[in-house]
Amino acid sequence: MLDPTEELSPFQLREASMDDFPFAEALTRNNMGGYYRRHHLVWRGDLFLASWRESENFILEVDGERIGVLRITEEGDSLHIRDVQIAEGHRRRGAGTYLLNMSHRWARARGLQELQLRVFVDNPAARLYQRMGYRLAGPRLAQLGSIRHMARRV
């Protein structure tokens, strides 16, 4: 895997440990809570923990402060971005772009063909994903109605 600190950046990305789990769950639950309520979904901490255990998890820091979470899994020839979460007050400063760029670099280094992610239809982050080359990718999650499945080539 590429060293995420080799670029000149205010961000540091490190592998998460179980000690980071409470931060990651709280950040994700807080960021996604409004979407869950609007789309009549129920947060399941047990499912988040199971997903955490199956994912490669990273913590984004600025000056030693945890400000974000990146969670990925590799499936077939795709890198699936499970979570890009940025803390309130740190958004719109390049953190999400940094995490997406690192994911792209890792996918390329692993010889993968595609990156995939899911996003709520009313999440403004979808505009960032589109600017970075992600496009709607078929009806894979159409039955849920509230979630878009997006992909881009590596």
From TrEMBL:
Pfam families: Acetyltransf_1. PROSITE patterns: GNAT (PS51186). InterPro entries: Acyl_CoA_acyltransferase (IPR016181), Bact_Acetyltransf (IPR050832), GNAT_dom (IPR000182). Keywords: Acyltransferase, Transferase. It comes from the Bacteria. Residues 11-154 form the N-acetyltransferase domain. GO terms for molecular function: acyltransferase activity, transferring groups other than amino-acyl groups. PANTHER family: AMINOALKYLPHOSPHONATE N-ACETYLTRANSFERASE-RELATED (PTHR43877:SF2), AMINOALKYLPHOSPHONATE N-ACETYLTRANSFERASE-RELATED-RELATED (PTHR43877). This is N-acetyltransferase domain-containing protein. It comes from Paraburkholderia humisilvae. The lineage of its organism: Bacteria, Pseudomonadati, Pseudomonadota, Betaproteobacteria, Burkholderiales.
